[in-house]
Each structure stands twice: as structure tokens, then as C-alpha cells.
Amino acid sequence: MALVLNVLWFFFAGLATAFSYVLAGVLACLLVVTIPFGVACFRLAGYALWPFGRTVVERPTAGVVTALGNVLWFVLIGWWLALSQVVYAVGLMLTIIGIPFGIATLRLALLSFNPLGKEVVSSAEARGRYVPVVR
Predict the structure, then answer these.
(1) 54-80 burial, b for 16+ CB within 10 Å, e for fewer?
(2) What residues does 108 pair with on adjacent strands?
(3) pTM reported for the whole predicted model
């Protein structure tokens, strides 16, 4: 079932969503200081392309520096990524078939607020070892 959802997601929402993350990642990598933000953008782009069957979990080693990085992330990148995701989710929810994809896009918008200190793992691995952040 995850394969079918991922294929539909890829065409209805995945490409556009991943493109916004890749664009933000490329812009973040232009400056040396913001390269960690670019890496986070690329990680989110991979998750946005193929989200079903995977989940995002807290990294146990994340600390104060990660929290400060998330604040800086929100100010520089996070708010407009989340805003673009919300606008796209509303567009998806205008159709009946797009409602589940719109909800998934809203979950990605929440993740856009503070992605540092999180990692993407398979759902099976997450059930055994982690508490999921985005369901």
C-alpha cells in the first residue's frame, strides 16, 4: 500500500514539495555558515519525495546547539517553507482525492518549522526504537 501511496504522492505533491526544499537547500549552501541548513533541506526533500513507509524521529543526541539552530532555521528558511507547504496543501484539499495528500503536506509544513535534530527512518525501525515526531 505504501508503494501505491508513494507513487500517487510523487505525482500529486512530491515533486513540487521536494522542489521547494531543494531550492531552499541550494540557497542555504551558498554561504558556508548555512550549509547545515542546506543539508537539512536536502534530507527533507528526500523525505518529501517518498514519505509513506518512513517517519521522522528525534535524534537522541540533539541538544542546545540544535535548538538554537532550529530558531535560526525558522527565521531564515522555515517560515517561508512552511507557508509554501500550507498554500500547496490548501490547493490539494480542493479535490476529494487530494485531501489525504494535503494532510501529509501539512505534516511536512510542521516539520519545516524545526527539522534540525531529527532523522528519517523506516516506519518499522521507528516502531521498534523511536517515538515518531510526525505521524
Answers:
(1) bbbbeeeeeeeebeebbeebbeebbee
(2) none
(3) 0.79
